[in-house]
């Protein structure tokens, strides 16, 4: 069985960082998506948190999340650049190669796609010397960019090698973006795929999308969108996406359950995807190249 | 038939490279100096002297020496904190900074920060120059210097070593040719974009190579005076090698006659690599590695 392409997200679990890492590792995962407040909230400080991650043996899928960065001007822009720099430094300390940036929800931000693209290009340039890639994600309640199709448009306009998109199944289903749009993406520019399901058929308003996204997502295969999720993953696979899948599952129940119970649910989900949906074999010889950037697509 | 076709414009005047502001946004005009950081400045000084450099001045407040020959300036920074930071605690010397000549240092600094460069806090002491800097590859820095014509930055920050010739001639016509940067796997496009966006570097086609070490990607800097332009060579690790380390690896020096230069430098004590894979020829040569990390490459080049 090969679930190495799938990882859990610290946000699905309650408790201190070390316990989360132990539970994730214990369920057989080899990677973890890290969130800033897991680290800065560590009682012994950031350095201790970084050490815990490095000693866990888990690879950082990525680091999240930079919010509302793009489209601002003047002192707001300067402020966000400072925040971005601090996030990038944490990301580098953790050895994570991907920083997740979400589309802006701010009414103070411009809706001009070229200005948004220029800001993201600047963000990518900041990340570049550190060897970090920026994965730009369209939140389904983003003000201007709220579907991955628009996020892709912006990424193409910005045209920077270390700027790509992040796909989140939740936002695709919530916004009802047609899955055929996946076929127009360049697989080498998809830097991260986050998977989650949920229990409602419809999420019409931005408020509803936001509440559901933050409190009631479930692991792939546990919700009512399993078929669509299957189709999404298969489409990405056919497209040639060979990068990581991370379970972005915010759930108010899960943060009230023992960690191994939640991690076991995640594992079931990963096994379902790896064995039944993608039918992944054991690692192929060409996946075992000694590259420092796992999952990167060769040109 | 249009007379443009009979007399194509290139017949009237030779086609010129672009010298527009767009092609050279910083008014880049070559390398002012290259800085090594090392906890063992004397050992590095010996190697530099074998390469024909002469120590000419000392920094006013820090443990820093200036070596020079012809138009080449090398700064050896032994300030303990700098030496430790630039080499990540290793004992071996590292190329810790490149200082670029620009039209207006303030404007250049402003421009690159707008594009997304990281500024480096400077530590100028009283009556010293506050030279702006940004982060470059692997902990190295890129300085911007605009006072290089009418007066020299060294007149302010350095005190000449008494009785020493301040302008020693270049051995065998040595001049800056370029810098070789090691980059992580699959990082070529990233760094090409970095140097293009911030400085206006242009890609040299793969069929055009200089010297005897042709690997990787070659970029050429814009320059106000074309003679001051220099090269950057970006080299990724071999496919199955784990080495994501990024650093400025060596300096490339141009000489009009490689074989003559090799003869002259050998007499000063420098040894060159002579193996089947890399050996001295009229196109170029490479020195052995000194002190665990210091290498110079010679490339045939008529400018300078």
Question: Which structural traits does this protein have?
Answer:
heterodimer, A: 299 residues, TIM Barrel, eight-stranded parallel beta barrel, two-stranded antiparallel sheet, disordered C terminus, B: 304 residues, alpha+beta, 2,3-Dihydroxybiphenyl 1,2-Dioxygenase, domain 1, 2 domains, nine-stranded mixed sheet, 8 helices, 16 strands, 21% helix
Radius of gyration of chain B: 20 Å
Which percent range fits the helix content of chain B?
10-25%
Quick one: overall form of chain A?
A: globular
Q: Report the order of strands and helices of chain A.
A: EHEHHEHEHEHEHEEHEHEH
Going by CATH, the homologous superfamily of the largest domain in chain B would be: 2,3-Dihydroxybiphenyl 1,2-Dioxygenase, domain 1
Produce a short descriptive summary.
The complex is a heterodimer of chains A (299) and B (304). Chain A is of the alpha/beta class and 299 residues long.
How is this fold's topology laid out?
The complex is a heterodimer of chains A (299) and B (304).
Chain A: E1 6-9, H1 17-26, E2 31-35, H2 36-40, H3 46-56, E3 59-66, H4 74-94, E4 98-102, H5 113-127, E5 133-137, H6 148-158, E6 163-168, H7 169-175, E7 190-195, E8 197-198, H8 206-215, E9 217-218, H9 226-239, E10 245-247, H10 259-277
Parallel strand pairs in A: 1-2, 1-10, 2-3, 3-4, 4-5, 5-6, 6-7, 7-10
Antiparallel strand pairs in A: 8-9
Helix pairs in contact in A: 1-3, 5-6
Chain B: H1 3-6, H2 9-12, E1 31-37, H3 41-50, E2 54-59, E3 64-69, E4 72-77, H4 80-86, E5 94-101, H5 105-115, E6 119-120, E7 133-135, E8 141-145, H6 153-157, E9 158-160, E10 175-182, H7 188-199, E11 202-203, E12 217-220, E13 231-235, E14 247-255, H8 258-268, E15 284-286, E16 296-300
